[in-house]
Amino acid sequence: MKVTRRRKKFNKKKGLVLFFIGLFFLIIMFLSIKDFFEKNNQNQLEKSTFLNESDQIKQTIALIKPEMLKNNEKNEKVVGADPEFVKKYGADVFEISKKLEQQDYSPIDGKRIAFLTFDDGPSKYTEDILKILKQRDVPATFFLVGNQITEYEDKVQKIYENGSALGNHTCSHNFSKLFKNKSPNLEVFKKEIVDTNNLIKKALKNDNFTTNVFRMPGGSKSWRNTSDVFDYLKEIKMASIDWNALNSDAEGRYKNSNELFERFKASVGDKEMVVSLMHEKPSTLESLPKVLDFLLEKGFTFKILI
Question: Mean pLDDT, to the nearest integer, of 44-54?
């Protein structure tokens, strides 16, 4: 009996020991599993946070990149017109001016070339002119007056966006101010050329824009002793250019659109390089589609002065 009781007592103690050992291992396993899941959740959270931050960085870069590109574009020198259109339509104003001086109206690289130019803008007619040009995929060169830019500043950007070129036509276009006894007042010319260039830059919101192209009000052949102005233009790397065809919209009495068109056709004649003079006027605007169709039918390609 005593042996039996001792065995029972021993078995009871053994059972308790085994129970506590099992319980201990269960607790260890529980803690290990808990630690595993906590670490896994933390990793998932860190990964999610990283992905979110990565996405945020990507979004920030996506927002910043266009602005950076825009700023880089602004930091590059832009001459005469949008670089894309300069590449497509641009012609060296120094070479074209030289051809005009020599009265050499022969084709350029075997092609008939027309340079449409519009003086005395921008104006309330600028956008209408641009619409007609765009309909026929034709660029032009606009000789801008500084005082007009002040009034129609937004039109300068429209010209640029249209692919046309921007030229300098002084700030005042005031003959009595610019000339004395038919000769240029050099200091006034200098100031007005610089002021107009700055106004173009301001209108485009681009300090890196420059133009090589200048036209003297009234045309250089209308005045005496112009060499000082030409020398100054040479110093600042600009060229003065006149024309060899016109519609006479600024000469004499008023002419309707048909008269302007007929005058233009006669003025072009058999020339195969044409630098035409027109102004931003209602009758010129009305005649412009016929002028463009006439030149296209004669096989002219259109270029801009750069």
Answer: 47
Interatomic CA distance for residues 89 and 108, integer angstroms: 13
| pLDDT tens string 140-149 | 999 999 999 9
With beta carbons less than 8 A apart as the criterion, state whether 200 and 121 touch: no
Residue numbers of the domain that contains 151? 78-305
Contact 303, 113 (CB under 8 A): yes
Helices (H), the chain: 2-75, 83-89, 93-101, 126-135, 146-151, 153-162, 175-178, 186-204, 227-235, 257-268, 282-297
φ/ψ of 112, rounded to 5, equals -75, 125
**Domain of 134: which CATH number?**
3.20.20.370
Task: Judge if 69 and 202 occupy the same domain.
Answer: no
Measured distance CA(23)–CA(17) in Å, rounded: 10
- The model carries a pTM of 0.77
Closest by alpha carbon to 109, among 130, 95, 125, 127? Answer: 95
Query: Which residue is listed with tokens 């130019």?
Result: 117
237-247: pLDDT as tens digits? 999 999 999 99
Please tell me the distance from the alpha carbon of residue 191 to that of residue 276, in angstroms, as a whole number.
27
Say if residues 305 and 80 touch (Cβ distance below 8 Å): yes
* Distance separating alpha carbons of residues 180 and 187, to the nearest angstrom: 12
